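Predict the assembly for these two chains.
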Amino acid sequence: MPHPSSHSGHDRGPTEPASNTPADLPHLAQQAAAFLADYLTSLERRPVLPEPHPGRLLERLPSLPPEVPEADPWAAIYEDLDRLIVPGLTHWQSPRFFGYFPCNHSVPAIVAELLSAGLNVNAMLWATSPAATELEQRTLDWFAHAFGLPESFTFAATNAGGCIQGTASEATLAALCAARHRARAAARARGRTTVHLTLYTSEQAHSSVTKAAMIAGLADGPEDRTHLRLIPTDPAGAILAEALGQSVRADLAGGLVPAFATLTVGTTGTEAVDSIAACVRALDDAARAFGHERFPGWVHVDAAFTGAALVCPEFRRFFSGIERADSVCINPHKWLLTNFDCDLFWTRDRAALTGALSITPEYLRTASDAADVVNYRDWQVPLGRRFRALKLWLVLRCFGLSGLREHIRGHVACAERFESLVRADPRFEITAPRTTSLVCFRLCGEDGRSERLLSELNAERHVLLSHTRLPSGPGGTPGRYTLRCAIGATLTRQRHIDETWAHITRAADRVLRHSA
Amino acid sequence: MPHPSSHSGHDRGPTEPASNTPADLPHLAQQAAAFLADYLTSLERRPVLPEPHPGRLLERLPSLPPEVPEADPWAAIYEDLDRLIVPGLTHWQSPRFFGYFPCNHSVPAIVAELLSAGLNVNAMLWATSPAATELEQRTLDWFAHAFGLPESFTFAATNAGGCIQGTASEATLAALCAARHRARAAARARGRTTVHLTLYTSEQAHSSVTKAAMIAGLADGPEDRTHLRLIPTDPAGAILAEALGQSVRADLAGGLVPAFATLTVGTTGTEAVDSIAACVRALDDAARAFGHERFPGWVHVDAAFTGAALVCPEFRRFFSGIERADSVCINPHKWLLTNFDCDLFWTRDRAALTGALSITPEYLRTASDAADVVNYRDWQVPLGRRFRALKLWLVLRCFGLSGLREHIRGHVACAERFESLVRADPRFEITAPRTTSLVCFRLCGEDGRSERLLSELNAERHVLLSHTRLPSGPGGTPGRYTLRCAIGATLTRQRHIDETWAHITRAADRVLRHSA
């Protein structure tokens, strides 16, 4: 490779600010990492919630940006992080963060994020960074194996494979676009130019399904039921397969085109698991009654949180029937030690997905397909993409599948312990069957008691729980108010469970004394 | 804050793998940063492109993931990075990367990514990390000021403000959803339940506009023109405002509802700038002819690349008329020293945006609005979001606005030099007026010469250029083949321009000798 030495003396590109010299990176990164090590170690002593003062940071920040670089910015930056930023954060990494499904990280994943930030390649096309695309293909195949997904979801199959999406919301939207593309193409093939598509999910499915329908133009607001059907669930929160089948039958009878069903493995409210196998049977039965060989629509499985547990064989039963799904997503950024964002999305019908999302005109597609490379731009909403496979790779190498299993099982053991503590206290009750690590419970008696308990806990800011309402009962009676203890933060150990329970029972003492 | 000391002895949560001890983070981060410092320093000597061997990495990776952690993973990881990954990357940070609009980073932004990865908070709601949301609000106001945007786009205005989107593609999709929401609400208010919406952009607009229409269900593939109008441009690539007005008139005459116009400040092909002021006039005139006071649709300005230059007052003319836009986006991840992903998106109509993207039912919205906090989940497609305001903050503090201006002006000077080198060589011609730092040029004569020149350069892999076709001429004559030299990589200095030009002219010697 020739390197011309024709430097002509003038070199008036951007000047090299002192703050942008690669040689400074090692000590600046070490300084940042030392700050983080202190932060992570301090979480055990910190409240998990900030003081709730809207506008507190805004009041303290200058109204205008700096005109010139700060002379020695780093000391001031760390002072401001300590003084202004950290006290205003909700600490998702706190071992007593049980409010939402967790947002895991780990030392290898953090280092991988640093590496990815420094390489800063954009793998929108295979050609714009082949190794980033190929590492993503292989790590997705590895995780398909890790979760026990059939080979029909991997790149070993002709029309299948996986990619990293930012979030499960984006995965659902991508799946919906693919479903619509396939349904319309099938309708066109039968000579129908206009079709009324219908979508199905449960009343307990994540709000991102409704949001995807809104973005895709298939719901004019969250209450619009022109296309979207929210199927009722059993009291625990799992979809009623029979009701799903009936809804599809009614739509087929009305000449509509059932195109998309999202099943949930681990609902946000209660971690309920829709039975994929029972739903597929119900969908097939409904379709056969109208002359189809099987359900022709797209089945998407949203296993964003609970799917992580499938690295352990004892939880594989949750995916029974998965071989009939068209797509599935699982988020290592929730419970598999991998930084946000990292949603893994597999499909058995790549052609439908890229058909929906590729902006290469149809008549040019064969040429680019012929190159036989994966252009991930056509699998997702955005064009650009970070090199996120790196963190999956480092997490796998540093923990192995055995380490991931240990991580999951440790938290499931924590949840078992929490559940047993709740059951041992007659003032409390468990309100939904535990699936993996989410425990739903409440104070016995009227809802107000549990509501006051949560207010007490939030005011103390020492542990973070959240609440939901159980599925409404027959006749639409409102579901009961329930507390949620979502276990899975990277640093959570059994001692935090015991500490949290002690905290909860003391708060309950106060609540019940007051209401007595 | 009480800390119960009731540790009960058993602590059977996940065990602490050696690889996940926060105390290890400083030396592991330093090691990674030292690797990156070497990498960045080496870019001057490396080819910018990898060898084009599809499957090369896939062949070398194990087919199954590791069952157990590697005993001492880090040495092996860096060996594999050197041996397997880096040689397979397209080096977006190479100073001779001129193929696509750049993907900037900087030492402060990389450190900020590390900090953000370690804090790993999810600012989907104000409450889930108040300081992350408020820092984002303020940094967006700061950048509005930096780019000379009117105050009507900032949080100082009642119904306005900015947020970070992942990419311009997502910003365009969000804007389209907001536009549709507003247009439908207006139609309902006039008693119309079904409306045929129309969308407008230029033939030279980014493909993400068409892709957004496809995702939103307003285009059934890239060629569908049921809703989407692609307006012709002048020979340089800027939209013909008059043609835009005519198209809107025709649709209004047909009873359709023009809802969304995307104007481009800096097209991908030639960095052409649509005149916002002229387009708004044309849109208003068309609307007035049909009894509207002004154009009622949404005007979105995609300034993803060129917008960065507006930190320099001499480029503010590109935003003349911006006060009439409903939204605008600019990507610091392209040309403002901030790691991918970081698209800044402002709107003057927050209510329409959150109306389109909030899954809180309409009847519950007032209660949450009353809290007077910003819940960024409702501004974007995904639910979760990383703490990306941190990198904007550190970049501003370490470079100041003066440093950002110097960065832009340095690259514009590089582009001026490159243009003058092209103009001084009679074998070449400039094919489109230069806007900031993209230079479009070609070998004089038939297209094949420039095509061969690009092949020669790609085969050498020492510099990366790309190509496009100029807008087609009157009567649809195909546009001429043109090379693109997109200057703006963080490390590019004037010496790389001279070196690149020497490279190009030597390749041209060979091409022209061969064709002579």
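Chain B touches chain A through 178 residues (CB under 8 Å). Residues 3 and 503 of chain B are 68 Å apart (CA to CA).
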